[in-house]
């Protein structure tokens, strides 16, 4: 029997920098003395009994001391320093310096004292390591020794990490590229523990000479393990990045002599070459004890050398008693964007337009294009990658061009009727500032930075481009004349003339006008005459290139001109709109402040047919006015929102209403009436009472900008009627209110500012609502609270602070509970704390910070988070692993500062820095796939990641991975992971299988073997499945990493050279065996899963519903047969799916063994089984009937199938089947089976 050591973490403590440095440099190796560095270049020696009596203080090096150590015999104390020297002192009176060891070329990392064999009690030698990997030997008199002379030395300690005894440990880390050994400590004569730069501990045999040695692995610190020391049965480890000291219990572990397992990740890896291997009870016990085994680090994360500092809250999380560790599956619901409240009136220009007959409008909010249809009061959306800066609309073609902030994202053309992408114009300029279509809608003018560019929209090519050389350009438009542009800005009005790809301009002489201005702001038209708005409020009319007249339209800067056919035009300034006829006579003037518009106008659109004027304001509102009398057509704004952010959200207990407050000083209640109340002060916290009759609102902001703002004040508003009157108010703090939370029985309210104040409330309803408030307790905090939750019994508060702390308090006595384990089984009324055990998996090491979250803990429980990147992410609840799968939804531009799930889970509300409020419909899919059993057939099918696929090309040629010399497509640098052909067989897609680096997918022509396009993404690691959509404009890819990520690329108008990544999501931890497109969705199925992915408005998933008869089956393959989906199972059955309800409508036993491959054919479907049979099935009378069956002569599974139909299109002529690395061609006429090709096996190079 062999013995090893097992570590069990006992406790951990948070140490600041001072204790951190002290521990590193002040290890007690002798009971009566203790060394402590007083400054960077000095040291003191303390009495070891109480560490208060200074025995001696001295000085040796001119640089920082890095390590110190006593010899066991008490004769020497030595110091290592950053000056690369070792200073050896004698422990006599005054601790004299006896020697200086100099020879290292880098600062000293560690050293050990050693004794000669003939003098076991006398320290005679020193071995030392430097930080650059040097290992040197010395006598205690600083004389350098050779390694050969030290081979029999007995070393008092084993802290040096560079030595022959750790050769295998270094080789093990070298395979992981970026990790290295940082510390070590012997546990016994036979085992040693080493720490590395990734925070892991490994227990290895001592010595560890081979990288293939047996070891145990534990995860502890975040970042480098700087120091390891053992004291009895306790091991102490110190992390340099997390400043955490951990205590470990060391115990012996017995292993069966016939089975030396290596524990890696969550598997016991057994050498399959050994035959007599038996698990013993001790191994099972050992596996169960290893709670800190490294389950959570993927290969990509292991090779990363960067680490985020460990947050304090992560040291305070403890799992509940009944928790079973598991990786988070995809959530059992999805979010669908239903409505957006808000409009971008701050950052975007010319981003509000009437379309069609004037009953619809289009505008932008952050990263989202919105089409609002007044009929039906509905919104339709299209999200883009970057913030939208400007829009251009062509009415006749119903096209909208979107200019984005980031030049790499280009200009997107969207069809307004369907809100689908039409084309993408790649821009080379910085941030698109202005767009305009020409009269035909074929050409698009873009201004980005100081560059003008003209695009051919239909052909997606750039025609001409030039620098403007202008100080500041404010507007640019096509003129009514052919091939002519007009540019206006600071001190300029220019006409540009286009000839081919050449562009030239002529300056318009504005000095002929009386009192010329500096800024010309916008462009419009009166019939064919140009008009230009100026910063003085004037509108200048041109005849050709000559200014001929000027009218005083406003007293302030002209911001927008909206022209229509017939010569009429509308002009807007800061707070007014005027309508003019073709003779420049004012028809109507509207003062928008009189109508209740509180903010200046940023955009303008006039629809002459419906006589309506649309204005967008800097307060992020859209108003619709009548051009007949200037009245407001609606009761208030057509689109409303807060004028500033951040916003706070509170959900009403009725599950349909919610309230928001923001720095603009308004309370808004969102329901059928959308009520607003002017509070006159900025607010960042609000909370509905449990009965919904009252709303608490807290006031203030970090920096007061007006004397009216009273930080720390809070009020209770009666919202039971329509009066919205304040019935109570209080102020106990001088800091702004950050968070508010009611207890469920309504008698207590917690208010957080710099502290947490818990109040007792007593309310009366007759004759009028009245509330008495008394302060119960005050919870003092070192850092302001940002989130907190009441426990269900109301006794406790769970608190997150601004310093990333997680704390617990007794609510009434305000006593902090320092032991996290005491609260591990406490149930909480709400789950809004962003730091906690139940949501720890939402904090990805390299991902954005989580700003807000909410949890739905009923059936199909989930967590929805909002991050700094504005993306909403949805996880299954609880989410305890950073490897948990999630669905992401592109939402806000900037951080998503608030997320709230309405009661009942019907909707999710989010608010962001883009001043938008988004309402997401929470579609909960409670028809879950049941747990399925795995069969041995699946393991055999999944045993290799090598592509075993052969397909027919457009000319009936065979396409397959090969290492031969046939017609080849030779762009792959690794083995091929997947191959797919388009429906016309004119395109082939093939992807790399290697997951060590980002993989590529190649689109190529099967006739000429020439490349058409390449697709890649930094998150794509290995390709396991590919599929074209029926229209050949989309390609779906499944990666072979543990999350089986799903990528969807879209070719605009079939041009794959301009393809872009249109959808992305995690696919789940279960292996995905196949992907299939329908006309409207993507279907992915495999081990224990069948998911239906929809694309509108984002990539979202719903799960297939399995009947009770099929609960134990695993789906291995799938094929579309007309409008039906057919899947093959591990039990040999065909399952027919209804794609409208995503459920099973039929099941039939097809094979005696597993169905491993399916392909649609003219008769119905072709199937392949795990025993090597290929069968053609006819679909007749809603049932399958066997037509032909072929035996390819192998007992291995059929990995892939393809068919070549007869020219009449009614029958199958040939079948291509791959089994046992051999491609067989079957003649359906004669039944003859021939070997067509050999497919490379694992390890062989391959190409297509």
From TrEMBL:
<dbReference type="Pfam" id="PF23414">
    <property type="entry name" value="Beta-prop_EML_2"/>
</dbReference>
<dbReference type="InterPro" id="IPR055442">
    <property type="entry name" value="Beta-prop_EML-like_2nd"/>
</dbReference>
<dbReference type="InterPro" id="IPR011047">
    <property type="entry name" value="Quinoprotein_ADH-like_sf"/>
</dbReference>
<dbReference type="InterPro" id="IPR001680">
    <property type="entry name" value="WD40_rpt"/>
</dbReference>
<feature type="domain" description="EML-like first beta-propeller">
    <location>
        <begin position="965"/>
        <end position="1194"/>
    </location>
</feature>
<feature type="domain" description="EML-like second beta-propeller">
    <location>
        <begin position="648"/>
        <end position="922"/>
    </location>
</feature>
<feature type="repeat" description="WD">
    <location>
        <begin position="639"/>
        <end position="671"/>
    </location>
</feature>
<protein>
    <submittedName>
        <fullName>WD40 repeat domain-containing protein</fullName>
    </submittedName>
</protein>
<feature type="repeat" description="WD">
    <location>
        <begin position="889"/>
        <end position="920"/>
    </location>
</feature>
<feature type="repeat" description="WD">
    <location>
        <begin position="1148"/>
        <end position="1177"/>
    </location>
</feature>
<keyword id="KW-0677">Repeat</keyword>
<dbReference type="InterPro" id="IPR036322">
    <property type="entry name" value="WD40_repeat_dom_sf"/>
</dbReference>
<dbReference type="InterPro" id="IPR055439">
    <property type="entry name" value="Beta-prop_EML_1st"/>
</dbReference>
<dbReference type="InterPro" id="IPR015943">
    <property type="entry name" value="WD40/YVTN_repeat-like_dom_sf"/>
</dbReference>
<keyword id="KW-0853">WD repeat</keyword>
<dbReference type="Pfam" id="PF23409">
    <property type="entry name" value="Beta-prop_EML"/>
</dbReference>
<feature type="domain" description="EML-like second beta-propeller">
    <location>
        <begin position="42"/>
        <end position="250"/>
    </location>
</feature>
<dbReference type="InterPro" id="IPR050630">
    <property type="entry name" value="WD_repeat_EMAP"/>
</dbReference>
């Amino acid at each position: 029997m062999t013995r090893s050591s097992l570590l069990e973490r006992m406790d951990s403590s948070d140490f600041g920098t001072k204790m951190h440095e002290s521990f590193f440099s002040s290890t007690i190796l002798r009971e009566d003395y203790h060394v402590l560095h007083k400054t960077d270049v000095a040291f003191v020696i303390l009495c070891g009994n109480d560490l208060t009596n200074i025995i001696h203080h001295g000085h040796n090096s001119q640089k920082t001391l890095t390590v110190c150590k006593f010899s066991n015999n008490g004769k020497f104390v030595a110091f290592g320093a950053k000056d690369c020297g070792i200073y050896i002192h004698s422990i006599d009176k005054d601790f004299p310096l006896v020697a200086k060891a100099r020879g290292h070329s880098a600062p000293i990392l560690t050293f050990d004292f050693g004794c000669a064999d003939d003098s076991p009690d006398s320290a005679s030698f020193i071995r030392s390591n430097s930080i650059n990997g040097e290992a040197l030997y010395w006598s205690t008199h600083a004389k350098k020794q050779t390694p050969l002379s030290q081979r029999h030395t007995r070393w008092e300690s084993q802290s040096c990490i560079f030595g022959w005894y750790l050769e295998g440990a270094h080789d093990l880390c070298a395979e992981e590229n970026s990790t290295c050994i940082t510390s070590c400590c012997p546990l016994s004569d036979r085992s040693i523990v080493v720490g590395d730069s990734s925070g892991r501990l490994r227990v290895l045999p001592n010595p560890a000479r081979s990288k293939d040695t047996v070891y145990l692995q534990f995860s502890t610190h975040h970042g480098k393990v700087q120091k390891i020391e053992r004291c009895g049965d306790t091991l102490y480890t110190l992390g340099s990045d997390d400043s955490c000291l951990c205590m470990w219990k060391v115990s012996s572990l017995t292993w069966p002599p016939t089975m030396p397992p290596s524990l890696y990740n969550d598997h016991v890896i057994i050498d399959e070459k050994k035959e007599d291997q038996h698990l013993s009870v001790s191994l099972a016990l050992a596996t169960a004890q290893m709670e800190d085994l490294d389950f959570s680090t993927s290969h990509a994360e292991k090779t990363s050398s960067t680490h985020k500092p460990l947050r304090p809250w992560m040291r305070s999380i403890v799992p509940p008693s009944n928790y079973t560790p598991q990786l988070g599956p995809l959530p059992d619901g999805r979010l669908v964007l239903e409505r957006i409240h808000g409009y971008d009136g701050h950052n975007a220009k010319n981003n509000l337009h009437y379309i069609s007959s004037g009953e619809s409008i289009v505008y932008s909010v952050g990263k989202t294009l919105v089409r609002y249809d007044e009929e039906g009061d509905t919104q339709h959306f299209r999200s883009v990658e970057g913030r939208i800066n400007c829009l251009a609309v062509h009415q006749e073609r119903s096209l909208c061009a979107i200019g984005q902030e980031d030049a790499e994202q280009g200009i997107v053309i969207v069809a307004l009727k369907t809100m689908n992408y039409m084309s993408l114009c790649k821009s080379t300029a910085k941030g698109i500032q202005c767009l305009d279509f020409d009269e035909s809608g074929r050409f698009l003018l873009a201004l980005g930075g100081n560059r003008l560019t003209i695009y051919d929209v239909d052909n997606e090519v750039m025609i001409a481009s030039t620098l403007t050389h202008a100080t500041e350009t404010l507007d640019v438009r096509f003129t009514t004349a052919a091939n002519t542009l007009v540019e206006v800005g600071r001190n300029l009005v220019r006409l540009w003339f286009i000839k081919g790809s050449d562009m030239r301009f002529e300056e318009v002489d504005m000095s002929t006008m009386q009192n010329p201005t500096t800024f010309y702001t916008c462009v419009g038209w009166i019939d064919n005459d140009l008009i230009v708005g100026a910063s003085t409020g004037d509108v200048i009319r041109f005849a050709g290139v000559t200014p001929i007249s000027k009218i005083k339209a406003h007293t302030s800067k002209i911001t927008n001109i909206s022209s229509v056919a017939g010569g009429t035009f509308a002009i807007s300034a800061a707070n007014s709109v005027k309508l003019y006829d073709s003779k420049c006579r004012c028809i109507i003037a509207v003062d928008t402040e009189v109508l209740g518009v509180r903010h200046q106008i940023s955009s303008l659109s006039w629809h002459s047919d419906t006589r309506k004027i649309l204005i967008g304001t800097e307060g992020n509102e859209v108003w619709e006015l009548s051009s007949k009398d200037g009245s407001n057509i609606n009761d208030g704004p057509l689109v409303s929102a807060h004028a500033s952010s951040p916003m706070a959200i509170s959900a009403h207990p009725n599950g349909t209403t919610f309230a928001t407050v923001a720095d603009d000083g308004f309370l808004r209640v969102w329901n059928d009436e959308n009520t607003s109340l002017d509070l006159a002060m900025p607010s960042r916290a609000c909370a509905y009472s449990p009965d919904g009759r009252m709303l608490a609102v807290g006031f203030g902001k970090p920096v007061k900008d007006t004397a009216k703002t009273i930080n720390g004040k809070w009020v209770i508003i009666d919202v039971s009627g329509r009066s919205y009157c304040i019935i109570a108010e209080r102020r106990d703090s001088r800091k702004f209110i950050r968070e508010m939370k009611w207890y469920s029985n309504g008698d207590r309210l917690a208010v957080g500012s710099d502290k947490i104040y818990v109040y007792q409330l007593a309310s009366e309803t007759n004759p009028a609502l009245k509330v008495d408030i008394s302060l119960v307790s005050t919870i003092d905090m070192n850092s302001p609270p940002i989130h907190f939750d009441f426990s269900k019994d109301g006794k406790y508060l769970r608190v997150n602070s601004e310093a990333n702390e997680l704390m617990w308090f007794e609510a009434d006595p305000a006593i902090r509970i320092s032991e996290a384990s005491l609260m591990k089984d406490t149930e909480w009324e709400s789950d809004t704390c962003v730091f906690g055990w139940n949501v720890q998996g939402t904090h990805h090491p390299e991902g954005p910070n989580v700003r807000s979250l909410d949890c739905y803990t009923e059936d199909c429980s989930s967590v929805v988070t909002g991050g700094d990147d504005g993306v909403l992410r949805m996880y299954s609840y609880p989410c305890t692993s950073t490897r948990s799968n999630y669905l992401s939804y592109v939402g806000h531009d900037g951080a998503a500062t608030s997320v709230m799930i309405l009661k009942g889970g019907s909707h999710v509300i989010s608010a962001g820095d883009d001043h938008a409020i988004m309402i997401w419909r929470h579609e909960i899919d409670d028809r879950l796939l049941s747990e399925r059993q795995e069969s041995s057939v699946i393991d055999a099918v999944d045993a290799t990641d090598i592509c075993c696929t052969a397909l027919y090309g457009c000319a009936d040629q065979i396409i397959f991975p090969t290492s031969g010399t046939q017609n080849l497509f030779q762009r792959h640098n690794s083995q091929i992971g997947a191959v797919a052909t388009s429906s016309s067989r004119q395109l082939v897609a093939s992807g790399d299988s290697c997951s060590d680096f980002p993989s590529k997918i190649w689109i190529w022509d099967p006739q000429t073997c020439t490349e058409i396009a390449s697709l890649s993404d930094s998150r794509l690691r290995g390709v396991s499945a590919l599929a074209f959509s029926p229209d050949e404009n989309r390609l779906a890819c499944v990666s072979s990493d543990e999350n089986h990520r799903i990528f969807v690329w879209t070719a605009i108008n079939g041009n794959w050279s301009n393809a872009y990544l249109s959808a992305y999501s995690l696919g789940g931890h279960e292996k995905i065996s196949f992907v299939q497109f329908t006309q409207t969705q993507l279907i992915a199925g495999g081990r224990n899963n069948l998911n239906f992915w929809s694309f509108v408005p984002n990539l979202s998933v719903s799960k297939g519903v399995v009947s009770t008869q099929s609960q134990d089956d695993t789906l291995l393959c799938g094929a579309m047969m007309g409008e039906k989906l057919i899947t093959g199972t591990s039990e040999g059955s065909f399952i027919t799916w209804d794609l409208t309800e995503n459920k099973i409508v039929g099941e039939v036993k097809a094979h005696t063994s597993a169905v491993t491959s399916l392909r649609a054919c003219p008769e119905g479907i072709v199937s392949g089984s795990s025993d090597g049979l290929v069968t053609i099935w006819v679909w007749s009378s809603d049932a399958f009937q066997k037509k032909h069956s072929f035996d390819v002569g192998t007992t291995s599974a059929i990995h892939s199938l393809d068919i070549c139909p007869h020219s009449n299109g009614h029958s199958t002529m040939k079948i291509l089947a791959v089994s046992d690395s051999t491609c067989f061609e079957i003649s359906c006429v004669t039944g003859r089976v021939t070997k067509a090709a050999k497919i490379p096996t694992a390890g062989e190079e391959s190409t297509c």
